[in-house]
Each structure stands twice: as structure tokens, then as C-alpha cells.
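Supplementary notes (optional reading)

For those who missed the lab, this is the record we used. Protein: Cation diffusion facilitator family transporter. Length: 325 residues.
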Amino acid sequence: MQPKKKAILLSLCVSIVLMLAKFVAYFITQSNAILTDALESIVNVLASSFAFYSIYLATIPKDQNHPYGHGKVEFFSAFLEGTLITIAGLIIIFKSTYDLIYPKPIYQLFEGAGIIGATGIVNLIIGYYLINVGKKENSITLEADGKHLLTDSITSAGLVVGIILIQLTRIYWLDSAVSILLGLYIIFNGYKLTRRSVGGLMDESNIELVKNIIEILQKNRKEAWIDVHNLRAQQYGADLHVDCHVTLPYYFDLNRVHQEISSIDKLINGNGNCKTELFIHADPCLPACCNYCEMKDCPVREEAFRGEIEWTIENATKNQKHFDQ
């Protein structure tokens, strides 16, 4: 089984067991704060189920109807998870506000705290595991699910502290107050997850990713690569799609142009963190390029070389040759 599928299947199975444990804790205690954690666990199970399906789709090879593959479904999965987290947070706040006005008795808080504490530790371990696998496999779905579980473990820790405080002080309205605070924290994390997924669905530029590609090109640049511009990168699940324009000497024949473009392709795929598909447009050089062209013994040079222009995110992403700046 692929690492991504193995990781998300483990997350799904664990989420189901922990959800049942949290509802047992709620029925024992009748605590709103514990119900908060139990309701969020339903979101965990739903999100992990859809995440498993989205990872299955993302691993399907590209076809005629999906020439860029199916990886973008992972952004939709993260969006759904973020939306479900936010809805759960809103429900928690509304219910807890009602019970703050009309309180009800709660019982056996220490037993409930023990169950919630144990589930928090499990979520912490599984969360870090999913994030590590997600980064290694370039899966936003696994990272999102892992961060969700880390959020759940933090809310569980806060919940345990709140339960102990309630038991020691006998101030029972703190139960609803703690639940409201945890609900706000859940909504905040749901917003962050949704914001990132919407950025991916809208093909928002990943600045760090683009910087990394430019740094690789700059460190390994060849004299024939006069400049690189109009560089763009899009992430589709575990696959990266990059397109750019490369200025080459205009007298290169088609074989030499293909050789240079293939070198760039091998360079990016050999040094990058994920599989990359490149679409490179070759531009012919112009006399205005001569002052920063490093080609030695160029037969058509019209101006002396004055200095290299370092490739940065400012000039490499613009749709213009560097002499136009």
C-alpha cells in the first residue's frame, strides 16, 4: 500500500475509536466541554473518510479528461475539512452559550478528563505522523488532517485543564466558558485550513516554492541560459507544474535548444522535493541582451559583457527579458 493511503487509513481507524471514547466520556460526565471534543471527533471521521477518497483520486494517473492529473482534489479535501471544522466550532459555541445561560449538572469529571487526556496523546502522535508523511509525499490532504489532529490534541489538553479547574473550584459555569473558548480556537484553525485550500484551488502562487526553483536555477546556471523569465509554478497534489521562458542564443539549432531545455528539466527534477513537469518556452536572444550574456566567444556579440544579472523572484517571474527592466 502507498505511504499516503496507509497513513490516511490509519488516521481514519484511529479517529473512529477516539470518537467513540469521547462520547463515552460525555455520557459519563454530561459535560459541554467534553461534548465539544466529541463533536469535533465526528468532523475528524468525516474529514478522514473524504481525505482517504481524495488521496485515492490523486494517485490516479492523468487521462484525457484530466491532463494535469487528479491531484487538485486534495485542495478540495482540505477545503471541506476546514469548512467542517468551522461548522463544528459554531455549533459548539451556540450550544455552550445556551448552557451557560441554562446550566445543568455535570458528573465524574476526573474520569472524563482521563479519557480525554488519553485521546489527546493519541491524536498528538498520529497528527505528527500524518504531517511528516504529508511533507515527504507532498500531500496537502495529509498535512491538513495532521494539523487538524494536532488542533484536536491541543483542545483536549485545554479541556483537561478546564475540567480539573471545574472540579477543584466547583464553579460549573466554567464548563460552558471553556467550551466557548475551545470553539473559537477550532473556528480559527478551520479558517486557516480553508484559506490555504482556496489559495490552491485558485492557483495562488506559492512564493516559497517559486523561490526554491529560482535558487536551483541560479546556483546551477549555464552560460547559454541568458535569462529566465515569466516563471510560474502550480501544485497539483504531489505533482508540480512549472512553466517559464528561457532566453538562449538565437543561432542555436533545434537540437541544441532541446539539449538545454532537457538540462533544465533534469536539474529541477534532480534537486526539487517532488515530481515536476516543466513547460519551457525558448526565446531567442536580442542585441540588448549582450551586456549580461556570459557566452564566451559569441560570434554575434554586439556589446561587451558588463555583469551577470542574478535571478530573483522579482525578475524571474516578470513576463519580460531582463533588459526591459
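If you only remember one thing from this example: The chain has a mean pLDDT of 82.
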